[in-house]
Design a protein that fits this description.
By secondary structure, this protein is an all-alpha fold. It has eight helices and no strands. It folds into two domains: 47 residues, no CATH class; 89 residues, no CATH class.
Length: 160
């Protein structure tokens, strides 16, 4: 996700109503260092959630491609960094469907990563925690979406 310039943000703010600005400022006050990224999401990307999710997935792909796989230490460190990035983008969206989709994508990338994360307890535990988080988030979705995401999650995970 490319962060907008101050000029672009100013232009986007001019299009909002006073009540919209008030709501924006109240939401903005909950965040500290990512204010500019949050404003970019609210003003330019929130109207097209699908495109936003695809942009985040593209960024995740780049981050996975840059992982130093010479030792599990670097893999763990990079996986935690990617997960922190994803969680930040989920906070911006505040959409359970986006949360589930991004976390399933992360888990799929982690499962297909070479060397296998099953050889490392910390990475396997990280994956298990994310799967539990996905299941918890899925339970709050609409019945049809719940079924689709449970099916996708079931297909991704190996049978135990």
């Amino acid at each position: 996700m490319k962060t907008a310039t101050i000029k672009e943000i100013r232009t986007g703010l001019e299009e909002l109503s006073p009540s919209g600005l008030k709501e924006l400022c109240l939401r903005l006050s909950r965040f500290k260092k990512e204010n500019k990224e949050l404003l970019t999401y609210i003003l330019f990307e929130s109207s097209d959630e699908g495109n936003y999710v695809e942009g985040v997935k593209t960024e995740i792909d780049k981050m996975f491609a840059e992982i130093n796989s010479s030792s599990f230490y670097f893999i763990k460190k990079s996986a935690r960094k990617i997960l922190k990035y994803i969680k930040t983008r989920i906070r911006y969206s505040q959409n359970k469907e986006t949360e589930v989709e991004l976390l399933i994508y992360f888990c799929g990338k982690l499962l297909s990563f070479k060397p296998s994360i099953k050889d490392n307890t910390a990475l396997a535990n990280l994956l298990e925690r994310q799967i539990n988080s996905i299941r918890k988030s899925i339970s709050s979705l609409h019945r049809d979406l719940r079924y689709d995401y449970e099916l996708e999650l079931g297909n991704m995970l190996p049978p135990y």
